[in-house]
Amino acid sequence: MRFDLPAEKKWVHDIEVPVRWGDMDAMGHVNNTLYFRYLEIARIDWMHGLGATINPTGEGLVIINAFCNFLRQISYPATLRVRTYVGKVGRTSFDTWHEMAHTHSPGEVCATGGATVVWANMVTEQSVPLPDFVRAHLGA
Length: 140
What we know:
By secondary structure, this protein is an alpha+beta fold. The protein has one domain (10-138): Thiol Ester Dehydrase, Chain A (Roll). Helix content is 19%, strand content 42%. The chain is built from 2 helices and 6 strands. Strands 1, 2, 3, 4, 5 and 6 form a 6-stranded antiparallel β-sheet that branches. The protein starts with 9 loop residues before the first strand and ends with a helix.
């Protein structure tokens, strides 16, 4: 099953992620699990830039689902540009979408992916309303 990125989305972040030699598997390309790591790096860098740092006794993002469409193989050496977009914004959650491409050929997307994230209280493990500073950035 393939999930397509929606036409209605807002660009919110770009990051360059270097591919490491150890990211490759025995087949000589980046292991599929690492694509999710690259998406995580982009999401955390974006949230950290907003001031939403990781706090195990406070509030923050929790992923409730995630997907990745593997479109082209990636091998070392490479630097990837991961573009992050936001889709639907709710009271406690929002959808994130990503495009991953080589920096030397940005028109050739290697992977697309996304996740639905919920803003949660880490102690009670319950969803809570998105903070105003996050809502403002999301355009909600």
